[in-house]
């Protein structure tokens, strides 16, 4: 399984890595949307992307929209402080599969990942 | 200025930040914060040694500052990151900024407004001051926790949508 962590905060990427970094999981990181798209173009598609919203250069919403132009399969979970309902709707419309609001516990993030990956694996 | 109305120093604004401070600290750092009586900041008296600033956009203008004493910041960051960090490292500033980002963002959802937040900035050094809006009060929310004292300064106003 390949997972890409996209957040401008290295602290947050490290916290995510502790949650997802189990044996057999290949983890890559990027500091903004531009870097995220570059990593994907270099390393091929990922199974899961954890994506922040507010980042310099390219935000998470823009990255999700650009990725969805060519990739409908990669599961994207937005992990962000943006907690208002209109923001969540905007994210889902941009191609995000699920949404986790910061702050979160590791258990919450892990459960959301498992739930979202399970749902994505079911036939449409 | 037409269309500009200060957010009032009322209970709802303070409650939003108090709830956010406690939620972020307990969830991400496993530290329980105790909040003292909020007050209006007078003059330019600096907060503490380490400050993170997050600006608002959209229907809210201004910023929020989370300010720690150095010892408190080092202890909070160590717990947050799971390892001690040197105060001069990029990762230390990153961690302090991320805490401020979460406190501002978590409080913002209670405003009921279409507002965004920017990328956090971090200032380290004793006796620093941070420029603020002059036409609205700066609310100081003093806090204490097992790591020491810190404060959250809220200096924001609502724009339009009235």
SSE inventory with pairings:
The complex is a heterodimer of chains A (124) and B (162).
Chain A: E1 2-6, H1 10-20, E2 26-30, H2 33-43, E3 48-51, H3 60-68, E4 75-80, H4 85-93, E5 98-101, H5 106-121
Parallel strand pairs in A: 1-2, 1-3, 3-4, 4-5
Helix pairs in contact in A: 1-5, 2-3
Chain B: E1 4-5, H1 11-28, E2 34-35, E3 39-40, E4 50-58, E5 60-68, H2 70-81, H3 90-108, E6 115-117, E7 121-124, E8 139-145, E9 148-159
Antiparallel strand pairs in B: 1-9, 2-8, 3-8, 4-5, 4-6, 4-7, 5-9, 8-9
Helix pairs in contact in B: 1-3
Q: How would you explain this protein's 3D organization?
A:
The complex is a heterodimer of chains A (124) and B (162). Chain A is α/β, with parallel strands linked by helices. Chain A has one domain: Rossmann fold (3-Layer(aba) Sandwich), CATH 3.40.50.2300. Helix content of chain A is 45%, strand content 19%. Chain A contains five helices and five strands. In chain A, helix 1 crosses helix 5 and helix 2 packs parallel to helix 3. Chain A is globular. Chain B has 162 residues and is an alpha+beta fold. Chain B has one domain: Chemotaxis protein chec (3-Layer(aba) Sandwich). Helices cover 30% and strands 31% of the residues of chain B. Chain B has three helices and nine strands; from the N terminus they run βαββββααββββ. In chain B, strands 1, 2, 3, 4, 5, 6, 7, 8 and 9 form a nine-stranded antiparallel sheet that branches. At the A-B interface, helix 1 of A face helix 1 and helix 3 of B.
* Helix proportion range of chain B: 25-40%
The number of domains of chain A: 1
> Residue-averaged pLDDT of chain B, rounded?
90
- Class based on secondary structure composition and strand pairing of chain A: alpha/beta
Encode the helix/strand succession of chain A as letters. Answer: EHEHEHEHEH
Query: Distance N terminus to C terminus of chain A?
Result: 21 Å
Spatial extent as radius of gyration of chain A: 13 Å
How many structural units, i.e. domains of chain B?
1
CATH class placement of chain B: Alpha Beta
Quaternary structure of the protein: heterodimer
Largest sheet of chain A: 5 strands, parallel
Assigned CATH class of chain A: Alpha Beta
Number of E-type strands of chain A: 5
């Amino acid at each position: 399984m390949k997972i890409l962590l996209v957040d401008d905060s290295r602290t947050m990427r490290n916290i995510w890595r502790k949650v997802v970094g189990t044996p057999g999981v290949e983890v890559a990181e990027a500091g903004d949307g531009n870097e995220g798209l570059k990593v994907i173009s270099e390393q091929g598609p990922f199974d899961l992307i954890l994506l922040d919203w507010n980042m310099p250069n390219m935000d998470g919403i823009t990255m999700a929209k650009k990725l969805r132009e060519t990739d409908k399969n990669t599961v994207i979970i937005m992990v962000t402080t943006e907690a208002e309902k209109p923001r969540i709707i905007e994210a889902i419309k941009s191609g995000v599969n699920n949404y986790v609001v910061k702050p979160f516990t590791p258990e919450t993030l892990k459960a959301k990942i498992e739930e979202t990956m399970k749902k994505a694996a079911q036939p449409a | 200025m037409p269309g500009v109305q200060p957010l009032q120093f009322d209970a709802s604004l303070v409650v939003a930040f108090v709830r956010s401070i406690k939620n972020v600290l307990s969830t991400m750092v496993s530290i329980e914060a105790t909040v003292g009586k909020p007050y209006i900041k007078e003059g330019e008296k600096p907060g503490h040694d380490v400050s993170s600033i997050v600006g608002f956009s959209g229907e809210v203008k201004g910023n929020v500052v989370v300010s720690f004493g150095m010892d408190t910041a080092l202890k909070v960051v160590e717990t947050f990151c799971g390892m001690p960090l040197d105060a001069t490292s990029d990762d230390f500033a990153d961690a302090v900024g991320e805490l401020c980002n979460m406190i501002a963002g978590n409080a913002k959802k209670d405003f009921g407004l279409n507002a965004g937040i920017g990328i956090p900035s971090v200032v380290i050094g004793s006796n620093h001051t941070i420029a603020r809006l002059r036409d609205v009060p700066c609310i100081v929310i003093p806090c204490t926790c097992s790591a020491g004292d810190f404060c959250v300064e809220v200096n924001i106003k609502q724009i339009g949508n009235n």
